[in-house]
Amino acid sequence: MAKIGGFLVTYSLLLCCLAATAYGEVLFSSLKRSLEVSVKHKQGQVLKAGDDEITITWSYNSSSPAKTDSSYKNVKVKLCYAPVSQVDRAWRKTEDHLKKDKSCQFTIATKPYNPKPNTLKWTIERDVPTATFFVRVYAYNADDHEVGYGQNTDAKKTQNLFQVEAITGRHATLDICSVVFSVFSVVSLFGFFFLEKRKAKSAQQK
């Protein structure tokens, strides 16, 4: 019975692995950090979305654990939330399962893979919210699956971070409501004043 039980467990694990492969599920922990990534920005400066830009450079790291980059076909440059910006925000959480990972929601660029140094200047888009970020570059194979990565920060994501200041859609909605309420208040005040003035004039005529 013990042998049968062990066989069933092994068989189940094998089926899970096959299912994961069939559906293209990729775990971040399975990727090799094979790319060197750096971001040039002014230290200590709070960057403004829609105005400021960052310079991103990436290349293949020949001393990485990955033995070869022959399967790399494309790269995607991603803007990712740093841990300090993930606290109590479920929509920014990091997941080992890359399809469920919510930390790298912004795609900066998609380009053919080139092992030599690549440089990209990117103006921070207006829809990027106020938060602390880093940049990660994923390498993809011909099947469009992640096979390697690199980032401009350390494993704990505490170094070389940068802050972005922006007005998000949530703030814009509040601003619109505030303006509408202010206009309504002013109109109501003038309306009340006009009615009171008419009442006083009617009382004098009597």
List keywords for this structure.
206 residues; alpha+beta; Immunoglobulin-like; 2 domains; 7-stranded mixed beta sheet; 3-stranded antiparallel beta sheet; 2 helices
Give an overview of the whole structure.
- With 206 residues, this protein is α+β, with helices and mostly antiparallel strands.
- The chain folds into 2 domains: 1-27; 31-169, Immunoglobulin-like (Sandwich), CATH 2.60.40.
- Helix content is 28%, strand content 29%.
- It is built from 2 helices and 10 strands.
- It has helices at 2-22, 169-205; strands at 32-33, 35-40, 46-48, 53-60, 74-81, 106-112, 118-123, 131-140, 146-151, 162-165.
- The strands form 2 sheets. Strands 1, 3, 5, 6, 8, 9 and 10 form a 7-stranded mixed beta sheet that branches.
- Strand 8 and strand 9 form a beta hairpin.
- The longest helix is centred in the C-terminal third of the chain and has 37 residues, at 169-205.
- It is elongated.
- The termini are far apart.
- Mean pLDDT is 83; it is low at 1-23.
How would you summarize the topology of this molecule?
Elements: H1 2-22, E1 32-33, E2 35-40, E3 46-48, E4 53-60, E5 74-81, E6 106-112, E7 118-123, E8 131-140, E9 146-151, E10 162-165, H2 169-205
Parallel strand pairs: 1-9, 3-10
Antiparallel strand pairs: 2-4, 4-7, 5-6, 5-8, 8-9, 8-10
